[in-house]
């Protein structure tokens, strides 16, 4: 390219008379001491059996693919490639998600800018939706600080595909000084964002994330304000590094204290504040949710904001979530909702992908474009215009607030796009089982509310059956605490939408308060203090697996009869009949026992479960009665909730709720 080019980044502006290219993603690298996540920045070498299709990336060179050594990461933008080595940047953070830009924006081409020193080769590749790889271009490089521009079309990327480039070190080795992906700036405005972090008694996490954001100079011009909504008693302002965080944020940090209203209450406060103009009469263009227990890659915030700027219509731009304790484990690539069963989760094959085992280039599924129904609020950008039209979060404390919001926005014409290359590391939910603790109440109540609001099927499709099955599984698994909470949630749904704001600060405490009444809800970390396993008769060794389809009906009938009518074995009242791993404590295995010692999800303790036919009868009868009422009233309830939705999610209703739930008195 011989014409004059101006690069528009968050830190500079257009040069008059020059072609304007806006930087939409920078090539970035981990620090030298952060090699646990290196496979997300430089794709691991591929073995022949790992090829995704077509010629293997780099097959035309004789160089050996090799992961960089820790000291090859010269800076967050710079990488050394040693003599004769081949390094691929076809990685999660550094490949360009061409199909997403093609499908959701009007951008038709991208420019790859690479600045190198030393000698070697730059090779550009692309993939298609089937994961087949094509070599697009290559250049021999030898000068110091030379800039190389590659013009790349986005036209054939509707269904999927990425761009990336590889580096091959020559005789003297090669240094990548910096690289970035750029698009024609046109008249697209550079938007600003309010970052909203909700925290409850994690001041160390919260302050660390504030300082990480403050350390990114590139974020300075796009972050309008960072709002930390502190709902705890261990205050962010008391954290040792808080003063440093305030100074580093240079007037852009605001801590708001309020009563504990969960994630929906905390994020609703951030949304509410984003709708208000600051002292200069300015409003941010976007609001971004951020959990407190995360590690954020600042580049991800830039990419989300920039992508949102270019979207054809205002769009919710979500980010992926990696495991904080297993940094290369991608827990979900897209989140969808089964509209008939009204169940959330990733599409088949897109959950828990370890990119250190097989990187982006080697995974066919990651090369097609995946359209999300919603994005988790661990990190999610929402345009202010969406907040103005759609309203704020549903007042439900936790669970389903994020998914319901995207469904609501979609009904108003605003899609959710989960953008590859934008992500946080978050404490994984796979080491928790919140479906059997106090959160079981919110799982049930909020899922039903979301289905009443958004299901297009008669009586919610399969939702009633799903709800009945959830309750039954808890009951026959000796999870009576969870079973009671599910019924409490169902009862509160039947009470209608107008109690939600009143319950937001009380429902969690009420659910936790019931825990002391149930034996199986008491977790002991002193395993030696729990009774030993004893049985009156020996048992055959069997594998924990569900009954086959032909056997399911007779199994269900015999299980119900046993659970309801047969008294438990006398010895089981004193001793557990088995020790069961948490992974095996399923509805199809637990009913075999009259008592069992069950470990918890994070492995820190265990609890004693004891079969109680009286509780089974009481919970089962109440479940049948409440589900029958829900079936009878479904259409009327759905209309009631839908009519109330604009009111209960309005800034005015939330303002009243914030006023009624001030922060508790400071412990200082």
UniProtKB/TrEMBL annotation:
Galactofuranosyltransferase GlfT2 N-terminal domain: residues covered: 75-182
InterPro entries, alphabetized: GlfT2_C, GlfT2_N, Nucleotide-diphossugar_trans
All residue ranges annotated as the Galactofuranosyltransferase-2 C-terminal domain in the record: 463-659
Pathway: Cell wall biogenesis; cell wall polysaccharide biosynthesis
Gene3D superfamilies: 3.90.550.60
GO MF terms, alphabetically ordered: glycosyltransferase activity
Record bears the keyword Glycosyltransferase: yes
Keywords from the UniProt entry: Glycosyltransferase, Transferase
Superkingdom of source: Bacteria
Compositional bias per record (Low complexity), positions renumbered to this chain: 53-63
EC number(s) from the headed UniProt entry: 2.4.-.-
Start and end residues of each stretch annotated as Disordered: 46-72
Family (UniProt): Belongs to the glycosyltransferase 2 family.
Name of this chain's protein: Glycosyltransferase
UniProt organism field: Propioniciclava soli
């Amino acid at each position: 390219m011989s014409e004059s080019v101006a690069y528009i980044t968050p830190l500079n502006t257009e040069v008059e008379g020059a072609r304007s290219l806006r930087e939409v993603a920078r090539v970035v690298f981990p620090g030298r001491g952060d090699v646990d996540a290196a496979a997300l920045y430089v794709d691991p070498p591929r073995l022949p059996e790992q090829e995704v299709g077509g010629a293997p990336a780099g097959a035309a060179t004789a160089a050996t693919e090799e992961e960089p050594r820790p000291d090859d990461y010269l800076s967050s933008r710079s990488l050394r490639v040693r003599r004769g080595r081949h390094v691929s940047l076809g990685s999660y953070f550094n490949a360009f998600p061409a199909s997403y830009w093609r499908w959701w924006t009007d951008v038709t081409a991208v420019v790859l800018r690479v600045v190198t020193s030393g000698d070697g080769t730059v090779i550009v590749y692309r993939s298609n939706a089937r994961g087949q790889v094509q070599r697009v271009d290559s250049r021999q490089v030898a000068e110091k600080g030379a800039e190389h521009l590659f013009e790349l079309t986005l036209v054939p990327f509707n269904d999927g595909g990425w761009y990336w480039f590889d580096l091959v070190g020559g005789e003297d080795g090669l240094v990548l000084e910096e690289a970035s992906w750029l698009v024609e700036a046109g008249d697209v405005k550079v938007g600003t964002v309010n970052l909203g972090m909700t925290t409850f008694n994690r001041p160390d996490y919260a302050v660390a994330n504030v300082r990480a954001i403050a350390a990114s100079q590139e974020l300075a011009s796009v972050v309008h304000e960072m709002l930390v909504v502190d709902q705890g008693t261990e205050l962010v302002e008391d954290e040792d590094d808080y003063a440093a965080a305030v100074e580093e944020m240079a007037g852009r940090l605001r801590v708001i204290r309020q009563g504990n209203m969960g994630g929906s209450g905390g994020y609703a406060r951030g949304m509410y504040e984003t709708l208000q103009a600051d002292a200069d009469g300015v409003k941010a263009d976007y609001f971004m949710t951020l959990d407190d227990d995360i590690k954020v890659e600042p580049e991800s915030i830039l990419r989300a904001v920039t992508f949102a700027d270019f979207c054809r219509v205002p769009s919710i731009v979500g980010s992926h979530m990696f495991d904080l304790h297993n940094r290369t484990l991608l827990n979900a690539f897209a989140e969808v909702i089964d509209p008939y069963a009204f169940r959330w989760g990733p599409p088949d094959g897109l959950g828990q992908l370890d990119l250190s085992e097989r990187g982006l280039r080697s995974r066919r599924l990651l090369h097609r474009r995946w359209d999300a129904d919603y994005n988790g609020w661990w990190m999610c950008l929402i345009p202010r215009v969406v907040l103005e039209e759609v309203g704020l979060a549903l007042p439900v404390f936790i669970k389903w607030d994020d998914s319901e919001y995207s469904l609501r926005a979609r009904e108003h014409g605003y899609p959710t796009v989960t953008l590859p290359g934008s992500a946080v590391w978050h404490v994984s939910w796979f080491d928790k089982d919140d479906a059997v603790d106090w959160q079981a109440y919110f799982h049930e109540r909020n899922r039903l509310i979301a289905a009443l609001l958004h299901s297009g099927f008669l009586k919610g499709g399969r939702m009633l059956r799903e709800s009945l099955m959830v309750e039954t599984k808890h009951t026959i698994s000796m999870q009576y605490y969870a079973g009671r909470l599910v019924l409490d949630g169902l009862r509160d749904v039947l009470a209608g939408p107008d109690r939600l704001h009143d319950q937001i600060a009380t429902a969690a405490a009420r659910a936790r308060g019931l825990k002391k009444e149930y034996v199986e809800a008491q977790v002991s970390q002193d395993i030696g203090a729990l009774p030993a396993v004893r049985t009156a008769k020996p048992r055959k060794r069997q594998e924990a697996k569900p009954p086959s389809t032909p056997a399911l009906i007779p199994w269900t009938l015999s299980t119900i009869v046993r659970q309801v009518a047969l008294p438990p074995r006398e010895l089981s009242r004193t001793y557990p009949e088995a020790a069961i791993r948490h992974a095996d404590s399923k509805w199809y295995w637990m009913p075999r026992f009259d008592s069992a010692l069950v470990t918890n999800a994070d492995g820190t303790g265990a609890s004693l479960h004891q079969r109680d036919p009286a509780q089974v009868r009481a919970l089962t009868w109440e479940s049948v009665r409440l589900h029958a009422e829900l079936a009878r009233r479904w259409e009327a309830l759905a209309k009631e909730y839908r009519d109330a939705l604009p009111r209960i999610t309005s800034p005015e209703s939330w303002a009243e709720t914030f006023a009624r739930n001030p922060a508790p008195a400071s412990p200082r």
